[in-house]
Amino acid sequence: MKLSIVATLYQSAAYIAEFHRRASDEARQLVGGDFEIVLVNDGSPDHSLDLAVALTETDDHVVVVDLSRNFGHHKAMMTGLAHARGERIFLIDVDLEEEPEYLSVFANHMQSEPCDVVFGVQAERKGGWLERWSGKWFYILFRAATGMALPANAVTARLMTRRYVDALLRHEEREVFINGLWYITGFTQIPKAIKKHNTSTTTYSLQKKFSLFVNSITSFSNAPLVGIFYTGLSISLLAIIYTIYLIFRWLFFARPLIGWTSVMSSIWLIGGLIISFIGVVGIYLSKIFSETKQRPYTIVRQVYARQKK
After folding, report:
1. Packed helices 16-31 and 102-112: angle between N→C axes, nearest 10 degrees
2. Which residues contact 307 (CB under 8 A, 6 or more apart)?
3. 186: CB partners within 8 A, 6+ apart
4. Are the C-beta atoms of 117 and 159 separated by less than 8 Å?
5. CA pair distance 305, 307, nearest whole angstrom
6. pTM for the structure as a whole
7. Of 15, 198, 203, 255, which has the highest C-beta tally within 10 A?
8. Rounded Cα–Cα distance for residues 148 and 143 (Å)
9. 252 vs 235: CA distance, rounded Å
10. Alpha-helix residue ranges (DSSP H) falling in 84-128
């Protein structure tokens, strides 16, 4: 099979029909009839699954992978890639914020400049000031903590070769941060500036974004643990210096020290640092706990596909 188009479904009922039509047209122009459209239902609460299954009854190019519950966008994408059979795989969101027509654009770019991945980046990040500000600082802090220069404002839409996807699927993390996996898989990856439309309300709340940030940092860097060590070392050095100062003052000045406020402040400061440091260590321990259990990161309830004649 020459081409697989992979997309995930979550509250996507309003977009499925148009996405299917436009993606099918693009695929036919590019490879004729030798393609498939893999739709992964990530526990969507609306009737996205029913609409997708209905497509399999009329179009044998459509394959629907129904997950047993909502596992999250990144894990659903990895599951879709695992079910894709094409020589080239086009990954895209179904909500039409990224146009299916980018498939031809990316394919032409891949042909003119041989590479394994052509991925879309926003020339200007969409959304309100909070989304733009949080997105900007996410990449700054991630780069500072991990040393990995993730492409800023990268979107889901990307065309990949078979060998790249096979290499990507060798990662077996239980806690998936797919942007990081895209980067560390390597190969030749070329960005392509695109415009991302604002067609739907994002399902990524501020809490989910913060959780994603913590997961991304702890998945790809031990910087927080190293930071704990150096912070503890700095506090110990300050304590030693302060102790020497107190002894010196007691020996040569013999004045009573008035320091109730400073003592209490120090106790609260050290107590807060200890608790926060234990929390950071706990996050890493929870990841070790999750990885050692080796549970599958998604469970497929059923795969729907029409048998080709």
Report:
1. 30
2. 60
3. 167
4. yes
5. 6
6. 0.74
7. 15
8. 5
9. 26
10. 102-112
Q: What are phi and psi of 268, to 5 degrees?
A: -65, -40
Helix axes 260-293, 206-220, angle to 10 degrees: 80
In the chain, which residue ranges form alpha helices assigned H by DSSP? Answer: 16-31, 48-58, 73-83, 102-112, 129-146, 162-168, 178-184, 206-220, 223-252, 260-293
Q: What is the pLDDT along the chain (309 residues), one digit of tens a residue?
A: 899 999 999 999 999 999 999 999 999 999 888 999 999 999 899 999 999 999 999 999 999 999 999 988 889 999 999 999 999 999 999 988 888 999 999 999 998 888 999 998 887 665 565 666 666 666 677 777 666 777 778 888 999 999 999 999 998 777 777 888 888 898 999 988 888 776 555 555 556 666 666 666 666 666 677 777 777 777 777 777 776 776 777 677 665 556 655 675 577 667 767 777 777 777 777 767 666 767 788 889 999 987 665
What pLDDT does 168 receive? 92
Q: Which two tokens stand for residue 180?
A: 């990081």
What's domain 3-220+296-305's architecture? Alpha-Beta Complex (3.90)
Main-chain phi, psi angles of 190, to 5 degrees: -120, 125
